[in-house]
Automatic annotation (TrEMBL):
PROSITE patterns: HTH_ASNC_2 (PS50956). This is Lrp/AsnC family transcriptional regulator. Residues 1-43 form the HTH asnC-type domain. It comes from Caldimonas mangrovi. PANTHER family: HTH-TYPE TRANSCRIPTIONAL REGULATOR LRPC (PTHR30154:SF53), LEUCINE-RESPONSIVE REGULATORY PROTEIN (PTHR30154). The keyword Transmembrane helix does not apply. Keywords: DNA-binding, Transcription, Transcription regulation. Pfam families: AsnC_trans_reg, HTH_24. The keyword Mitochondrion does not apply. InterPro entries: AsnC-type_HTH_dom, Dimeric_a/b-barrel, Tscrpt_reg_AsnC-like, Tscrpt_reg_AsnC/Lrp_C, WH-like_DNA-bd_sf, WH_DNA-bd_sf.
Length: 138
């Protein structure tokens, strides 16, 4: 808390109180270490788009597949978007094949990440601007 206090120019007790309030309100839901998957031996990260399949079967397979880093149930043509981490191409093939048995998949290898773990502040309506100005026909 002392380091956080220095960064935001508040005393340690003030920071501790604010963090505890955020935890109590459910805004801060936990803490985690950010791990470099490359240094753990996972040389490839990929996004796997999974088509329509039985929800329970996909969830079960996700839970049984430790290479799945993140799993999102989504709208659109795909039902799921999975982020996986694997050692090499043969490992990628083995993991993707598990999901291919359920339904069609499409896989993209991540070359680099332009943004990860973005710090998010509470949204403010006045910061939301329409992408284009609407024209009134008056």
């Amino acid at each position: 808390m002392a380091e956080l206090g220095r960064r935001v120019h508040l005393s340690q007790p003030a920071v501790t109180e604010r963090v505890r309030k955020l935890e109590s309100a459910g805004v801060v839901t936990g803490y985690r270490a950010t791990v470099d998957l490359n240094k753990l031996g996972y040389g490839i990260r990929a996004l796997v788009r999974v088509g329509r399949a039985d929800y329970a079967r996909v969830v079960k397979l996700i839970q049984q597949t430790p290479e799945v880093v993140n799993a999102h149930n989504v709208t659109g043509e795909d039902s799921w978007i999975l982020e996986i981490a694997v050692i090499d191409v043969s490992h990628l093939d083995a993991v993707v094949t598990k999901f291919c048995i359920l339904t069609e998949t499409s896989t993209s290898i991540i070359l680099n990440a332009a943004r990860e773990h973005q710090i998010m502040l509470p949204p403010r309506r006045e910061d939301v601007k329409p992408p284009i100005e609407k024209v009134n026909n008056a």
